[in-house]
Amino acid sequence: MGKDVIIACDFSSKNDVLTFLDRFTGRKPFVKIGMELYYSEGPEIVREIKRRGHSIFLDLKLHDIPNTVKKAMSVLSRLDVDMCNLHAAGTAAMMTSAIEGLTRPDGSRPLLIAVTQLTSTSEERMKNELLIDRPLDEVVMSYAQNAAKAGLDGVVCSPLEAGKVHSVCGSSFLTVTPGIRFAGGDVGDQVRITTPADAKTLGSDYIVVGRPITAAQDPVAAYERCLAEFVG
Ligand code: C5P
């Protein structure tokens, strides 16, 4: 599995996302569709972007009882996406059911990635509100191991955690890493950031890049800079 740059298409309308993607006349980028776009445009936007030749990471972060997640994953598997995700906090039973639901009759399935702890959750909030007393890093690695044992393909994490995830879960267990900024670029609301080049050095398998590409003067040039730094 090769390293790749995934563009977070955080747009709220079909028109905005298709206008953005029309700029990419050469290589078709791997695209992340999140809740905002999916909830506003529905499954048809996934089919449309797939028809245009893009690989798709459908970032809906499922978290419910095992049977519900299994049935929802079965529906999503028919959308022919390349990667989708869930919350590891749903437990191993939920993750196992998710894989069952996601597996198509011919045995194929999209990659399934787990969210461990959201990067917006601080250790303090985890302790005070979720009543989890262990250090955040230990929780992330333990959830990653649960995901690996359940047969998932990887986790969403910071590039700063990618090396440790690989050492705990194996080098083929994927690390999909947001929080990417160019050197000297606008940080926005991200806190623990790395450049595409550093993410490569740290061992990320996929980088997820939103605003450094979507808000750039020249998004295609920004995408190509990411590819050059990360894929080489
Ligand atoms: O614009 P930016 O590059 O910050 O976008 C990063 C993308 O990755 C957004 O779609 C954000 O929701 C997502 N993400 C994240 N941190 C996580 C999980 C997902 O930034 N832990």
Describe it.
The chain has 232 residues and is an alpha/beta fold. It has one domain (4-230): TIM Barrel (Alpha-Beta Barrel). It is 44% helix and 16% strand. The protein has 11 helices and 8 strands. It has helices spanning 14-22, 35-41, 43-51, 66-77, 91-102, 123-128, 136-149, 159-169, 196-202, 211-214, 219-230, and strands at 4-8, 30-34, 56-62, 83-87, 111-115, 154-156, 174-177, 206-209. Strands 1-2-3-4-5-6-7-8 form an 8-stranded parallel beta barrel, surrounded by 6 helices. Strand 1, helix 1 (14-22) and strand 2 form a beta-alpha-beta unit. The longest helix is centred in the middle third of the chain and has 14 residues, at 136-149. The mean pLDDT is 96. Cytidine-5'-monophosphate (C5P) is lined by residues 8, 10, 34, 118-119, 156, 178-180, 188, 190, 208-212.
Examine the coordinates and then state which fold CATH places here, giving the name of the CATH topology. TIM Barrel
* Count of separate DSSP helical elements: 11
CATH hierarchy class name = Alpha Beta
Q: β content, as a range?
A: 15-25%
Task: Give the end-to-end Cα distance, rounded to a whole number of Å.
Answer: 15 Å
Strands side by side in the biggest sheet? 1-2-3-4-5-6-7-8
- Per DSSP E runs of 2 or more residues, the count of β-strands stands at 8
**Helix/strand/pairing category:** alpha/beta
Bound molecules: cytidine-5'-monophosphate
Average pLDDT taken over every residue: 96
Radius of gyration (Å):
17 Å
**Largest pleated sheet:** 8 strands, parallel, barrel
**What ranges have pLDDT less than 50 throughout 5 or more consecutive residues?**
none
The CATH superfamily name is Aldolase class I
Give the H and E element order: EHEHHEHEHEHHEHEHEHH
Shape: globular
CATH-defined architecture: Alpha-Beta Barrel
How many structural domains are formed by the residues? 1
> What multimeric state do the chains show?
single chain
